[in-house]
Structure formats: C-alpha cells, structure tokens
C-alpha cells in the first residue's frame, strides 16, 4: 500500500513538473504610482495571489512605470481597485500566452542544418549547443568550444572562443548571456555577435573580431533556460532545489523557491542591497556568496583568463529596459566614483548608446543601476569589476521598455542585434581612443606610412 502511494506521489510530481505553465488570457497592465501611499499599495499587491509583477520589487517607486501581470479572473477587481486608489492602469497585453506562443513558433523545415539558422526564431538549449558545435567545425582554426563547469542539474556551461591569433599576448573579452533564464533575447544576441565576428565582411566588425579574443557564453544558466521551455516561460533563477520551502506566505507558487538569482549570488558586497534572503523571492541571493555552481564557474573562468593575457572587456547581457549599465550597481550620485575609471566607462557607454539609437531609433539610457534602475548587489558584472578588476565592464539591458518585456517578438531579434553590434563597435573605438589598447596591425601599418612620408619629405627637402 505504501509502495502504491509512493508511486502515485512520484507520478503526481512528474506529471506536475512536466506541464508547461499556461498564461492563457493573462493580462498585463502598466501604471505609474504618484505617491508613496500608492507605492505601498502596489508593494502589497505583489504579495497577493493571482498577481505577478514583471517589474522587480525594488523598482516600484514614485513616478516609475510598473508592469503587472494578472489572471483574467482578477481583471475586473484589479481595475476597480486601481480606480478607487486613483491609479490610472492601462492594459498593454490582452493575452500573455499568445506572446509566448509567438516566441515558441518555428518556421517550417527548420532543424535540418542548424548553420542555416537565421535569427528569425528563438532556439532552445539543444539548438544553441548544436549551433556552437557546427560553428566550431566550420571554423576549426578560429573557434574553440568552451566548457567551464556544470550547472546544479549537471548541464555543461558552454561557450565558444573566437581567436584569430593576431597578438602574442591576447587582449580578451567575455560576453555573458542568459544568466536570467527568461531573457531569451540575450541568447540570440550573443550567437549573432559570434556569427558576425566569424562571417561579416564589414571592416569595422573584422577589426573588432580579430583584435580581441572573444569568449562568448550565450547561456550561462542552462537549467533555468531549459525550464523556460519545458515548464515556465517566466522563470528567472537557476534550478537549485535545496532551499525548497513553502511559499504560501509570499503568495507565489512553491516552485519559486527552487532557484537562486544568479545575478545576486556573486561575491562582491553580496546581500547588501537589492537582494533577498527569502527563497520565494525572484531576487533570492542564495545561502552564501557563490553558493551556486553557475556563478562559481563564471567567476573562476574570469580569474583563469586574467592569467592567460589581458582581459579587457566584460559585457553582461540582460533584458529588458534599454540601458547600458556601468558598475557599481549599488552606487548613485557622487558615489559612482568608487569605480576608479568610472568616467571612461560612462563615456564609452554613452557614445555606444548614441550609435545604438542611430540604427533603429531605439532610445537607451546610461548610468549605474542604482541611478537609473534599482540598487543591486552581488551581480556578476559588479564582481568582475570590483574583485577581478577587469578594466572595461558594462551590462546591457536589451529591448524593450515593457510592451512585450521578456516576450519580445521574434521579428525584433535582428533589429536588436544590429543596434547592439553598432554599440559595441563604437564602445571599442572609444576604448581604444582613450588608450586602453592599440591595434596590432593598424599601428604597424601607420608607422610604415609615416616613415615613408618622412623619407620622402627629407628627400624633397634636399632636392
Ligand atoms: Zn536579467
């Protein structure tokens, strides 16, 4: 009897975990609190069953736009309540599931040859890995497959290195994607950048591809990423079940405690601001700094690279908000100068953002997270700056501003990627102009031309 019951329990667990959470008819509203009282009401609403915020808790502040997702059965009640407290709520999404379906759609005849992937749809982990494998096969002298450790569920954390072997001592850059599982646009931004580095004929892209050795990790949270395809599209954290607890008090699904926010788990000012010790929170920072294998793997890899040559760049990719963030995420106002080269990082980002906007007219903001988004501690890119002391460190919050949020339509992948490339090219140009590194081939060439001109001038002078 006990045996039978346990089989039933096991079956029930398997059945529940295999079901894809449906967001059928879920609505999204946007609104902007005008007073502290309204902010307080909204914060309470976050702990009410049937409501989940696209906007993180710390972002709910006076005069800031908040996006709230709710089940259709709460729609009337929500609208009435908002009216009664003087808040103007506008519905922006009629059916969340239809946006998810659009993101899951595959063109016909897809999958025969992954190298024909054309960035018109969102690939899953298997496809991303297959793409990396085949890309490495096609460019055997330039591309190396990377495997930097295992996730909590034992998946490899994989990437590719693009190395044209231009320098005796390489200048390197790391691109980090999908640390937050649901931020799918970041995955395809990084595969796109890698593909352009390998195949673009544009001379500026060629320069950037060949003068820097790129270490590109499209998916740094593979368990969470897989989970967004199999179970819950809106999953953010990793899948560490060791902090499992009842989330009844927080009014969220118990499953939410099965994960740690990897971008709060790094060992730089861990758990000081903008992070939670509640496993049911989206920003749960873990039991200790670096408690998670994914954050440890990334950090160890960064430290290893520092021994191999000059690690100049680290760029983290997240969504959504349209921002280029400068470290540190806990500093605002005059305190931003805690980062010794803050002025350079800001200039690099602001020039990059200008070029980005010029491509498709998409506005981007630049600043520290505390200044323009919310205070954060324990994030990956802050650790890279503060502890690993990498010179040029930025974090992109990609499209959009919340209209689709994490559910950005696939038609926006390529425009997003084009503008990000424009930003990165400009950021590299400014970085060089300030003097962080000089190109190998160009400087040699310029020197030769100058020498010839000098000789010519001297000769003419004498003639
Ligand atoms: Zn993120």
UniProtKB/TrEMBL annotation:
PROSITE patterns membership = CARBOXYPEPT_ZN_2, PEPTIDASE_M14
According to the record, the signal peptide region is 1-18
InterPro entries listed in its UniProt record: CARBOXYPEPT_ZN_2, M14A-like_propep, M14A_act_pep, Peptidase_M14
CDD domains reported for this sequence:
M14_CP_A-B_like
Keywords on record: Carboxypeptidase, Disulfide bond, Hydrolase, Metal-binding, Metalloprotease, Protease, Secreted, Signal, Zinc
Tell me, what is one Gene Ontology molecular-function annotation carried by this entry?
Answer: metallocarboxypeptidase activity
Q: Just give the chief location class.
A: secreted
A Pfam match is Propep_M14
Q: Which cofactor does it need?
A: Zn(2+)
| Active-site residues, Swiss-Prot/TrEMBL | 397
Please name the SUPFAM superfamilies in this protein's record: Protease propeptides/inhibitors (SSF54897), Zn-dependent exopeptidases (SSF53187)
An example GO biological process term is: proteolysis
Gene Ontology terms, cellular component aspect? Answer: extracellular space
**Domain Peptidase M14: from-to ranges:** 121-431
What does the UniProt record say this protein does? Involved in the digestion of the blood meal.
Q: Which PANTHER family match?
A: PROTEASE FAMILY M14 CARBOXYPEPTIDASE A,B, ZINC CARBOXYPEPTIDASE A 1-LIKE PROTEIN
This protein's name: Zinc carboxypeptidase A 1
| Biological source species | Pararge aegeria aegeria
Q: Which gene is annotated as encoding this protein in its UniProt record?
A: jg26966
